[in-house]
Design goal:
Blueprint (H helix, E strand, L loop, with lengths): L1 E12 L4 E6 L3 E2 L3 E5 L4 E5 L3 E3 L2 E3 L1 E2 L4 E5 L9 E6 L1
Antiparallel strand pairs: 1-2, 1-10, 2-9, 3-8, 4-5, 4-10, 6-7, 6-9
Length: 84
């Protein structure tokens, strides 16, 4: 499986379990992502994407988005798109 870097985590909100990401490439609901950092390393499907608290299906490079994550992430963790 190929992976392509598509962004970085800049904030993690523990209560809702949401990562704020700065995108460098497109991301769609249903895509599989891999988040990797010093102590972070997991894959998951993207169930929802939010931009300014509004649900969207697709986000593009340059967007700041919120994505629900299944585990804790940290600022500067790298987000990869898993291409199956």
């Amino acid at each position: 499986m190929a992976e392509k870097e598509i962004g970085k985590v800049f904030i993690y909100f523990a209560k809702p379990g949401v990562a704020a990401l700065k995108l460098t490439a497109e991301l769609k609901v249903g895509n599989k992502i891999h988040i990797k950092g010093h102590t972070t390393d997991f894959e998951q499907a993207v169930d929802s994407i939010q931009i300014e608290n509004k649900a969207v299906e697709t986000a593009k490079a340059g967007d700041d988005i919120g994505v629900k994550v299944k585990d804790r992430v940290r600022p500067n963790d790298t987000v990869f798109l898993v291409e199956e």
